[in-house]
Amino acid sequence: MKNPRFDAALRARVSRNLALHPAAVLPLGRLKRAAVCAILADDGEGGAALVLTLRAKRLSAHSGQFALPGGRVEADESAIDAALREAREEIGLELARDAVLGTLDDYPTRSGYLITPIVVWAPENARMRANPAEVEVIYRVRLIEFERAGSPEFVSIPESEQPVIRYPLLDTLIHAPTAAVMYQFIEVAVHGRSTRVAHLEQPVWAWS
């Protein structure tokens, strides 16, 4: 299996797949609204990659975890505006609204957030710069890495009837919510499959 090319054909395919799969919008309830950017970028060799970050250890919440660029949606923002702002603040990537290809399903977290993932297309050879106050490392994970045998993994835990999803990537295990969003991105945006992920569980240590 080859890594998909980062080209106009991939952009058109992802846009079409997202348009054919209306995103599930969940009620906010008592959750706080958040948004993340699922950024398609080049891998430096003509292939396509998904941008992933390692959060700074100095952060008060979820420090040292792998995440997509994102954060809290402010009162005067849409989810799209928040996702683009977070990409600018965390990794120094300026993205215009026409870079937005579509939206994935809302994902409710055990820690009290409702995350809306926004899929965007980065310019070719886009330069990114980690904001040290929020991000330690920026990774460009080739899409083929999400397709390795046994990925993702679904694990049973006694605390929940739903399976925990996790990806073996970057010499570690990346769990939901990030893993759930990445899984749906590959399933829906890349392959055009009708896959929902809101039921997929997070590990117990991420419940607070």
State the gist of this model.
The chain is of the alpha+beta class.
Defining key terms:
single chain; 208 residues; alpha+beta; Nucleoside Triphosphate Pyrophosphohydrolase; globular
Task: Based on the coordinates given, report the CATH architecture of the domain at 8-146.
Answer: Alpha-Beta Complex
Helix content: 10-25%
Report the biggest beta sheet as strand number plus sense, adding barrel if it closes. Answer: 8 strands, mixed
First CA to last CA: what distance?
39 Å
The CATH topology of the domain at 8-146 is what?
Nucleoside Triphosphate Pyrophosphohydrolase
By CATH's scheme, which homologous superfamily of the domain at 8-146 applies?
Nucleoside Triphosphate Pyrophosphohydrolase
Class by SSE composition: alpha+beta
Describe the global form: globular
Backbone CA Rg: 16 Å
**Strand/helix succession:** HEEEEHEEEEEEEH
Which residues sit in consecutive blocks of at least 5 with pLDDT less than 50? none
Please report the number of helical segments: 3
Beta-strand percent range: 25-35%
Number of strands: 11
Mean pLDDT: 94
Task: Indicate the CATH class of the domain at 8-146.
Answer: Alpha Beta
Description of the structure:
- This protein has a domain at 8-146: Nucleoside Triphosphate Pyrophosphohydrolase (Alpha-Beta Complex), CATH 3.90.79.
- The radius of gyration is 16 Å and the shape is globular.
- By secondary structure, the chain is an alpha+beta fold.
- The strands form two sheets. Strands 1, 2, 3, 4, 5, 6, 7 and 8 form an eight-stranded mixed β-sheet that branches. A three-stranded antiparallel β-sheet has the order 9-10-11.
- It has helices at residues 8-19, 79-91, 178-190, and strands at residues 32-42, 48-55, 66-67, 70-72, 100-103, 107-108, 113-121, 135-142, 153-157, 160-169, 172-175.
- The chain contains three helices and eleven strands, in the order αββββαβββββββα.
- The termini are far apart.
- Strand 6 (107-108) and strand 7 form a beta hairpin.
